[in-house]
Amino acid sequence: MNRLKARPFLDGGHGPAKPKAYAPGVDEQAVAWILAETVCGLLEADPRIRPGRTRASYWETPRLSERVATANQAGADIFISIHLNDNPSPRPRGLEVYYYGRSSTGQALADKMAAAITEATGYQGPVRVIGSPSPRYKTTLYVLKRTAMPALLIEGGFLSNRQDADLYKNGTFPGAICRGIQRGTVEALKHLGRLP
Ligand SMILES: [Zn+2]
Questions:
Q1: How far is the CA of 85 from the centre of ligand 1 (A)?
Q2: Could you tell me the domains of the chain?
Q3: Ligand 1 centre from 171 Cα, in Å?
Q4: pTM recorded for the entire structure
């Protein structure tokens, strides 16, 4: 019966052993974990969906290859990695949704995810949908390339930017972005024919 359920995979970026972006009071890996767990909880409320996760507990810091292998072995329908961005300059801000640049399906799913997040959060800064690789973004992000299923990587704002970092200190933004990611995931699963 479970095999009939749609199977999104949530990946909260990094882990305590490998922290990345950081602002006073906001730690990327901790926030990414909480966001991924919250999205899993929202998706689990739908009996047609059985979400999976790449980190079974907060304390796990699997390698990227392990995260991808977990999703591939589970036969995931879509892989969604959640991160927070940073930059040497405090100026850049914005939300970003990356997709594997050689996939037109990936681009369609990324457009849906970006729209759902923007609508749910009312975010006022720039929202970018970026192919990886693409002519203006040469890097190929590992989890987008190595996953057997369509994959998206969400950067939920720049912790190096005061306005973006403040969104995670209190208030409604974290809950809203989780609802946006949930809706974007449902839209993506519909696009893939895994939900009616
Ligand atoms: Zn990250």
A1: 6
A2: 2-191 (3.40.630.40)
A3: 22
A4: 0.96
Q: What is the DSSP string of 63-75?
A: -HHHHHHHHHHHT
Closest-CA residue to 16 (of 28, 26, 7, 8) = 28
Does 126 sit behind a cis peptide bond, omega within 30 degrees of 0 on the bond before it? no
Q: For 45-87, what is each residue's pLDDT tens digit?
A: 999 999 999 999 999 999 999 999 999 999 999 999 999 999 9
CA 24 / ligand 1 centre spacing (Å): 16
Quick one: pLDDT at residue 93? 98
Q: What is the pLDDT of residue 130?
A: 97
HSE of 16 in the Cβ direction (CA atoms, 13 Å)? 5
Strand partners of residue 53:
10
pLDDT at residue 1 tops 80: no
Distance 32 CA to ligand 1 centre (A): 8
Mean pLDDT of the chain: 95
Q: What is the CA radius of gyration of the chain?
A: 15
Could you tell me if residue 157 is left (phi over 0), alpha (psi between -120 and 50 degrees) or otherwise beta?
Answer: left
The per-residue DSSP string of 106-131 comes to HHHHHHHHHHHHHHHH---S-EEEEE
Q: Are 157 and 95 in contact (CB under 8 A)?
A: yes
| Distance from Cα 121 to the centre of ligand 1, integer Å | 20
Residue 2: pLDDT over 70: no
